[in-house]
Amino acid sequence: MTSPTTVTGPAAAAGHHERIARLRAAATRIRRHALDMGEVQGQGYIGQALGVADVLAVFYARGDGELRLRPDDPHWDGRDRFLLSIGHYAIALYAALAEAGTIPVTELATYGSDDSRLPMSGMASYTPGMEISGGSLGHGLGVACGMGLGLRHRGNPARVVNLLSDGELDEGSTWEAAMACAHHGLDNVIAVVDVNGLQADGPTAGVLRTEPVTEKWRAFGWNAERVDGNDVAALVDALDRIRDHTGGPSVLICDTRVGRGVGFLETREKAHFMPVAAHEWQAAREQLEGPAR
């Protein structure tokens, strides 16, 4: 996406509201795609996919997303790099890549199958638009730091966005990379933290307390914004402010709700790897088509 020409007044307001509406619709499609893929395998990290869909829509929605991409040329040198260090969120990113047009929607039906380009954990060697192989948490921001340095040395204006989880903040390597990004003044690096309060071993607050998260990032030299990660308008406004920031890296801290958009999944226990019964997939899709929440 190229940055829009600055327009003020009623026309700008109308255009902004229309874009927000399109982004919300894109988020709903991403959720629906994720449910369709989850049903193929009968399982998956569907709760995280539903929770982070608004964030991914704001970055990937075709024509409206934050990322500079060429869907038909995923290796274009001028592209913004989006790093998924939380490899188990791959089901969500595949849905976003389909929304962007990088992979065909019809290919989503192959998710997790033999010889598919869409394995259950993200792997760069298989999937167009998947920049790194994630899964071992704590590596993504270090890679982002190296990419940011390399792009700056080459005079390439592309940005590097790293989507990581609040559980990934348990890893010391994440904070080492945070220090390095700030030390080098990498204003081409954006960290996006999905704070859903849940890890494989239980609630984040009980595994290892990370709050106050915003203050910690600022203490490490980062420009920090914290928003409701399921509020598309708030996400857009925060990224507008981040785009104007220079001199150092920025972090967008997104408070999200696991299972967002499907009420009976939002309240489900053991939601990290969420059990979904065969008869529930269609009920979940029908809830997505209900009134806006």
From TrEMBL:
Top-rank lineage group of the source organism: Bacteria
Transmembrane annotation, as ranges: none
Cofactors: thiamine diphosphate
Keyword rRNA processing among record annotations: no
Family statement drawn from the similarity comment of this UniProt entry: Belongs to the transketolase family.
Keywords from the UniProt entry: Thiamine pyrophosphate
Lineage of the organism: Bacteria, Bacillati, Actinomycetota, Actinomycetes, Pseudonocardiales
Protein name per Swiss-Prot or TrEMBL: Transketolase
Database matches in CDD domains: TPP_TK
InterPro entries referenced in this protein's UniProt entry, alphabetically: THDP-binding (IPR029061), Transketolase_N (IPR005474)
Domain Transketolase N-terminal residues, every copy: 26-288
A Pfam short name: Transketolase_N
